[in-house]
Design a protein that fits this description.
By secondary structure, the chain is an alpha+beta fold. The protein is globular, with a radius of gyration of 28 Å. The N terminus is likely disordered.
Amino acid sequence: MNRIPVSIVLSTLVLAPASFAQTAPTPALQSTANEVLLDVVVRDKKGKSLRDLEAANFHITDNGEPVKISHFRLVDRTTEQADAAKQAAPGATPAKLDPLRQIRLVTLVFDQLPSLDGRNLSRQAALDLVKGDPEPNVYYSVFVVDTAMEALQPFTNNRELLRKAILHATAGAFTEYAGDSRRVHEELQRMIAQPGGVDGQSTVGQIANMTGGASVGPQGQGAAAAASAAVQQHMAEMMLAMMLMDQTVVNDGSRLSIYGLLALVREQYRLPGRKTVMYFCEGLFVPPFLDEAFRSVISAANRANVSVYAVDARGLMAGRQNRAASDALQSAADSSRTQAKSTGGDAVKADQVKVFDTAETSMRLNAENSLSELADGTGGFLISNTNDLKKPLRQVDEDISLYYELSYAPPAMQYDGKFRKIAVKLDRSDVKIQSRLGYFALPPNAGPTVSPFELPLLTALQAEIPPTAMTFEASAMHFHSSRCAILVQVPMKQLSTVAEAAGVRAHLGMVALLKDAQGNVKQKFSQDLPLNVTNDKKAGLATGNFTFNRAFDLPPGTYTLETAVADYEANKAGAQRVSFIVPPIEKGVSISDATLVRSFAKQATMIDPQDPFEYQGGKITPSLDTNLHAEKGAVMSIYLVVYPDPSIADKPTLTLEYLQAGKVLGGGQLALPAPEKDGRIPYVASSPIENFPAGDYEARVTAQQGSTKKASQIKFTITR
């Protein structure tokens, strides 16, 4: 294992923050033609699904206004297969279902099941759901939320692979899932990176092997086979995106669950058709500071056409939770009545002061309420307070492949981020309807996975003169070939806080858009960070930084990084734009952009081999703080990566020079270790700076191999 050498040298970074004037918020955008897509399940009083309805039977209102249905069809697995058989010539194999129109995706999520009974109930339910012959175009994936969100099985219709993943997911609380998820992640990355793109035979074949399906190449098979290959590729890309939940989300139960669900549903817009999440858990508690994030899950699910079916794995034990909630609610009611009867002369008791908090807490104590809201709000339903799941699971199976698909153009609206309620009714009363309850009025040009918390951030980016009420640093780094990374750093001391009983709360949000030279959004990154800080940790909030970094790939070209951050408690924001270039690939040695180092973290193995800040034995946390204080013992570190050219026999060398006002002050050659397995050489140069005079400096790092040479520069400022 190679360790990054630490040289006693001198260096740092300066990226001057862009200066923007404060501006008034832009008016809300108007819409008249954005289509709303609905999946509607209809059953009679006996629970039998209805197949004979027409568009004229449905009456829909959007925020109370009637709308006209523009698209309507019945999606029925049975009739689809029968139609395919009828269209086939006598003795010929029936045509396959159209994967771009008739695909169904089901995500099985097992979230923190601490009890043996809960794991057993969830295991049997999931096995019952996937048993039997594979259905055409119905694919399942398996995720676990434990100490993190982990993927155990990519989308597949191979029953044996699914059975193994389900057994593993419900094996117990002490099972190690990270290794399995890492292998899935690495394999998907390798498959997608294969030459040939969406239509590449090798890529499609590898995806088919991993998912247990058949490798169907497009050549000689017609448009249907080409579409099947494209869907296989997109499923792999979508699976990777679903796995990229931000690693800063700590494992504190509700936060991990909510952000895990958000990561799972928001990326499923990439494929058409009905998508289903089967969510197995033992209740979902949503504290007030996570309300916005919870609403974002429902919004993202509705925009991606995902229905959530929640299974409360506590079974019949759930009744105790209901009684606990009822007791708390009764306590609040008693306190309220006592206060109402008071003539004003009696002292107010503590329970009377907290009456409204008690009432709110009592509702949240019943963790089924949140599960029901999640399921009902996305067109699914809650399965709870029962140990017999066979009947509701049969209904889930029917819902996956038997529903009405319809769409309409909503009335003219303001994109104000408010919730717009959808009501679906029929011209008969003896039916039960499952559909989405509504959606958030968010601009479609902000991207298909926009969340409510992003709306003020996107509004700030639309301003002609970006606001500056929040200060922060943002930058883009180029590493090698198409590999890049964005860095965002926000001083937390500027956040407004609201006092609470046990501490304070704060709420930070960030969004970053990567645009090409034509203004097209190529990548979007965002982070919603509601914070509840106890009194003993308030000092850390005032001195810390929110640091966000994410790697991605871009082809050569000129790009713009547009970044906005917001303090939701104080209703203020800041935004800035930075241009950067991804250079074309050239022969010879290459060197990454350099960055300052905030900290090192040791880790036994590489979690993500595609993360340019990882190396064998640890990971770098970069820093954009370019003003360094030359106090006693102060040290600064620079991180960079050298990429040798394997076709050149000479070993690469690295030279470091320090300049002030364009004049070289000193420097020297640094010894490079052998490349790591992937061929790159990560390097950290650390320098004591306590004796540096105050002023502006530049560090120039030059890599040379044979006759080829590449350089990277960093500017920094020393204060005393």
